[in-house]
Amino acid sequence: MGMSVVEKILARATGRDTLRAGEVVEPAVDLAMSHENAALVINQWSEVYKGTGLEARLWDPSKIAIVFDHRVPAESSKTASNQKKVREFVAKHGITRFHDIRGDEGGICHQILPENGYVRPGTVVVGTDSHTTSHGALNAFAFGIGATEMASVWALGRALNVEVPRTIKVVVDGRFPKGVGPKDLILHLVGLLTAQGANFRVIEFHGGTIRAMSTSGRLVLCNMSVEAGATSGVVPGDEETVRYLRRVAGVRELFLLVKPDKDAVYEREIRIDASSLAPQVACPHTVDNVKAVECVLGTRVHQIVIGSCTNGRLDDIEAAARILRGRKLAKGTRMLVFPASSRIFQEALEKGYVLDLMRAGAVVMNSGCGPCLGIHEGALGDGEVALSTTNRNFKGRMGNPNAEVYLCSPEVAAASALTGVISDPRKVA
Amino acid sequence: MVQVIATLGDDVSTDVIYPGRYMATVLPSETPQYAFADDAELSRRLKAQEIKPGSVIVAGENFGCGSSREQACSCLKGYELTIIAMGFARIFLQNAVNLGLNVVTAPDLDASVGDELEITTTSVVNKTTGQSFGVVPLPKARQAIIDAGGLIAYTRKRVLEAAGKA
After folding, report:
1. Which of A121, B9, B66, B157 is the most exposed place for a label (fewest CB within 10 A)?
2. Can you tell me the mean pLDDT for A130-154?
3. Residues of chain B positioned with their CB less than 8 A from the CB of A145
4. The pTM is what?
5. Taking CA B133 as the corner, what is the angle to CA B14 and CA B70, rounded to the nearest 5 degrees?
């Protein structure tokens, strides 16, 4: 019996020839990422050594990445003090993969890791963030863990008690129609699987649509796999993986792509025809409450958000700029745009997208998580509705339990910004 | 015997358990004040210390879905609550085990607010209705962490072993 992509990655990380779903293993970790919650990791990691008589020691500072993104720049003295504590820790312990609040190398962790070449095919990546699933787009096994578990990784260099997950194979073929893309595909899939349909499973993406998709699109799919409960999403390594790592991320070292065996065992297989998809919208207050855009046309929206680890990349900003160029936002609707990294922000400036968006009336903010999780800026008023390219719409998510969040693609968001109501991008010339 | 203090539905997210706007508060000693902060009644009862340690929140499928924020576990642990759900989201379940929050998976449980429960390793008995419900045991590998007193203690043991001191 053959192995799936994640079974192969975990076999290598545990020094085994073969491995089966259901086994419990302790894989060596290749990359351990935290954001502002590194403050809690530091606290828990220090606790581990209390009373041992041993000096607290990081297993390998070169494999730790810390990226400030959730509250940048700090919104309160409490956050600023936490960030200061992390900054001092990073300096003391020689952690070089540290991305502070900067306009040249800052951004959202799930964009910073890929674009700097930190994520390599076949590796095990853990992060104290549920959207760590994103990095499966680069053929890694990447999953979210809590801060205490990260403290354990910092001490031991291994993830403890990892149950090898079963894999769901998703095969996508066909060309996306105009105005439809990766975000619509993953929203459709989350609706199909439900919020718990992939709990404790990995989603492995296959088919012609995936092979033709850029890494940016694959990041969208793997990012939101967690919204179906998946431990991770993953794409078999291919020419696009190599192109992205060499040309975009500047990786020079050798790496090996991981593909599943021909006789790999999958728990189930789901086939999707991309050419039959319409733009999708996830309605309040769960991500699996997914409808075709036709069903919610005309819903009044007060705030449009383009950004986040899901849809804040250059192609997302380009799609919005193309729709808004030479036009104006509807009165009574505000629009916030958050490029996912400073590098993307600079590229959007160079290509004129930022000017297109600002002239239309959008506010372009610094790179970071922005209002996605309601902790920093862009909160909603009572009774207000947001239409957002982010990844979650749980009650209270955007800072107010008396508000509603709809999730969609950049195309749907931009088309709706023009009208002030949820609109179909296929109808906008 | 312990009492059910609240019943919740499916897919209770960590945004509901511990709203994101309080995430700058990280220490387990400080997080309980924000547990279910957007649920005015439940939040008030928790903060008023009306609820006895060991009291139970009953939930449906996929409890703790969403963010990996550990505050969602530490805030409940602070009140010594027990969560009985039909199912848990992966990261929440792992965090609960790591921090020593008492979680029980009982897929068929039927219980209402005020019911008295008896919880054992194999079953949950609803003393009020007389019904008994099966419990899904944790994987053995996770039980080892619970037995050690949580992940910090378990990791400490491993660190000492690696240093040849245990």
Report:
1. B9
2. 98
3. 68, 91, 94
4. 0.97
5. 20
